[in-house]
Amino acid sequence: MCCGETEATAAAARGPPPHVALLSSPGMGHVAPLAELARRLHDAHGFTVTVLTYASSDSAAQRAFLASLPPAVGAASLPAVPLGDLPAGAAIETLLSVEAQRSVPALTAVLAGLKSTTNLVAFVADLFGADTLRAARDAGVPGYLFFPSNLLMLSLMLHLPRLDAEDAAEFRDLPGPVRLPGCVPVPGADILQPLQDRASDAYRWMVHHGERYRDAAGILVNTFDAVEPGAAAVLRQPEPWRPPVYPIGPVTRQATDGAAADATGCIDWLDAQPERSVLFVSFGSGGALSTAQTRELARGLELSGHRFLWVVRSPSDGGANPGESYYDGSRSKDDPRRFLPPGFAERTKALGHVVPSWAPQTRVLAHRATKAMLTHCGWNSVLESLAAGVPMIAWPLYAEQRENAVMLCEETKVALRPEVGGADGCLILAGDIAEVVKEMMDGEKGEAARAKVAELKAAAASGLEPGGASYETLAKVVSDWKAASGPS
Ligand code: UDP
């Protein structure tokens, strides 16, 4: 600054700060990482940000979460669009895709408004939002995607239009595993659940998104090189047929988020437990087990004899889709504890704590008493677990979780997976649950996973420091945005 020049005149000369609009698909698993990206763009790179959400995801929990962001990060909800013409029971992928497509006119108006009132330099949508990149073009700013899953899943999406054209068989009927460049081979049956039925609307939507991803100016990915080094080496190379790919993660919520209020009692309970003694059991914001599987899990935890903290949700017997809690995971109509086996609470009270529907997960994972997590392998939960140095038992339910489980068990080697058996071949039995819990908490395989996860925790932290791969990758994108918008 020149002599005598005030901070205010310097700021006026610099012009308004760069502004970016981020559009999140419904679901806390989508909103939370984008909000965290917004915080990072503000804190490390001086941006102001608008986080846009859809009317269907509006909930008290989401509003409270967005209101807790720094003042330079605003939030706005796009107006509701009619979805009543979609068939009852439409897949979540279809609902999210149609809502995005029908919201383009409203989004175009919002971006035009931001363009006239802020120094808007870029627009970022997430995995179901490729159709909304049109609105960025109309606003004259580059349209990027933020992919909240990993490079394995992104690679599948980018190759999907080709795979769809080349082979008419269902993935689960393929003779060998699906091999994507640099990625762990994935058995067809473990491929993304909506891709398991080529005749479904959800399948067609995913192929459509894979095609539209090519319209993005770049794809930011919530992963980091050390967790999937082979895929990172391939996808970090530019290719003419796809946008540049930028691993910038882990972008996860801070363990201090919501630290003031823990009405669930989880933290108080953990405070009273010995160091590294507890298995945390959680199936994300929408995952629910069948009634039979819920009872089997209860029996398995009891049989293991280990301490556990279990976020129980009311069972869903309608298949592997997310339960009705998808749009607001903190809400539950019934007390799910009534689905547990008779006498379970009494028999396990010395070792276990059951909390209905929701726990402060990042705080639980960071707690000194937590030793491992049994998880549905939602990617945010995986990243939070890695960032906290907590190894996993992989219990995938839907979406891309089975792919994630393959990667975590076979490639990254930070998770163990129980046998799936039962009379119908799709139940995990109490005895097998107890076995995998004992192995994770006391066995050699658990110890090996713990050592590997400690390495990844350190890699995740150093990657996010200035000079680290993820930090510098985001810095490069940010400097491209600023350069494209010209001197302010
Ligand atoms: N979450 C939480 N408490 C819960 C369940 C979930 O805080 O009881 C958070 C979790 O920390 C993560 C997100 O909700 O940030 C779930 O995202 P993920 O991708 O793991 O799974 P999804 O909910 O999208 O299936």
TrEMBL record:
GO terms for molecular function: UDP-glycosyltransferase activity. Its EC number is 2.4.1.-. Keywords: Glycosyltransferase, Transferase. It comes from the Eukaryota. It comes from Panicum hallii var. hallii. CDD domains: GT1_Gtf-like. Belongs to the UDP-glycosyltransferase family. This is Glycosyltransferase. Pfam families: UDPGT (PF00201). It is an enzyme of class 2 (transferase).
